[in-house]
Prior knowledge:
Elements: H1 2-27, H2 31-77, H3 124-165, E1 168-169, E2 183-184, E3 189-195, E4 200-208, H4 215-223, E5 229-236, E6 245-250, H5 251-260, H6 262-267, E7 283-287, H7 290-296, H8 299-307, E8 314-318
Antiparallel strand pairs: 1-3, 2-3, 3-4, 4-5, 6-7, 6-8
Amino acid sequence: MRYHYFLVFILVSSALAANQHKAEIEDNEFAEFEEFDEDDELVIKEEETTKLNTESEASSPEQSFDEEVEIEEDSEEFEHFQDEEEFEGLDQEVPLVKGKPSEKPDLKITKVPLHLRRNWESYYLEFLMFAGLIVYFINFGAGRNKNQKLAMAWFNSHRQILENNFALVGDDGKKEIENPGMQKESEHIYTLWCSGRACVEGMLVELKFLKRQDLVNVMANMFRPASDQIRIKVTMNADSMDNFVFCIANKKTASRLLKEMSDLSTYCPEKKSVDRLGIPDNFVMMSELGEAASAMLDSKLIAVLQKYSECIDFIHFSDQFSGAKIQE
């Protein structure tokens, strides 16, 4: 019987406890969710702490590695400052005092050469050049005037003879003669053309003087003397001239003419002596025909050769082309 009461008491107490717990659950409907939230927060906090620990552990070696790299770069960047040869005297103390220095610097004044000073002696080269130009122009005017006077003197002295043998003396090549007399080709060359004679087409007289207007040529003539030349070229009519080649010339000139003149080298290759003809021995004769010498060298020509042997260079008579030899 007692056991029955004890069981009933246990059942009643358990029923009351169950009802009380049910009422608490009904009063807090979100209690289950709160329990889950608390568990989640604990789990999340634990995960965050683990992540932070892992990140701090991972970042710490990277930061140390970067610091080591930066330190190495800084040491390499300023490594050239340790070169002693590049910065000589850098260790010496330099006073950083503004204003005037305490000691005066030792200034050394360089001596200026004499030719750089502004005085008349420094322009001696310019004076020499200016004096040379003055002398050149004075010589130019004097030489030109002298050649002109020589040409006019020759023309005036031979004008009467030329007018007696030619109808026209001093043709200037124009239809109406404006300037009769000598024609000036250059400062040292003058020409005279005469025409109007039987059996003769014309005669050209060329006066070739020294280049007296050229100072350099004047100085060269002091070491190698030369002389003025007169060249007279007579053009005969073709039907009035015999066909032969004849030349009498100075020995030195004869050798040059044989090399340069085409007709002499072709028809008169040999030089002949003129001793038996009464001509000075400084001349030689070149003739195509033996009879041409007796026909050309009459008494008047021989007398002229004897009298003016030093002035006559050569006498050339030819019916062929007497120009320069054609080079093969």
